[in-house]
Write a structure and sequence with these properties.
Blueprint (H helix, E strand, L loop, with lengths): L4 H7 L5 H10 L4 E4 L3 H6 L7 E2 L4 H9 L4 E2 L3 E4 L2 E4 L5 H17 L1
Parallel strand pairs: 1-5, 2-3
Antiparallel strand pairs: 4-5
Length: 107
């Protein structure tokens, strides 16, 4: 999922998207979110650990309200969930997902 205005407008309060993401995760898919789209994964209860500290004020407030533990890093990865701080993290975010795909294909 990609953050930004579209995520705030279309994804944050959508009741179906968290269910779809949860179904995909349970079936073994790798799930990823950048920037403010991380909030959708929090609401779907797919984030178990720390998340990248977001720069956007409204998203930071939402994550704090949801009880997120934020750390100053570009990307975090826990099992099959990859989170990126935002546009500045795209390269590392993409590489992390590629690495997970390679590992998944080995097994």
């Amino acid at each position: 999922l990609v953050g930004g205005k579209g995520a705030r407008k279309s994804l944050w309060d959508d009741p179906i998207v968290p269910q779809i993401l949860t179904d995909h995760y349970r079936s073994g898919s790798i799930i990823g979110a950048l920037g403010s789209a991380i909030i959708v994964l929090m609401r779907a209860s797919l984030i178990l650990g720390e998340i990248p500290l977001l720069q956007e004020g409204l998203a930071k407030k939402k994550l704090e309200a949801l009880g997120a533990v934020c750390i100053d890093t570009l990307v975090t990865s826990e099992e099959r969930v990859v989170l990126g701080q935002g546009a500045n993290a795209v390269k590392k975010f993409s590489q992390t997902i590629r690495d997970l795909i390679k590992v998944k294909n080995v097994f």
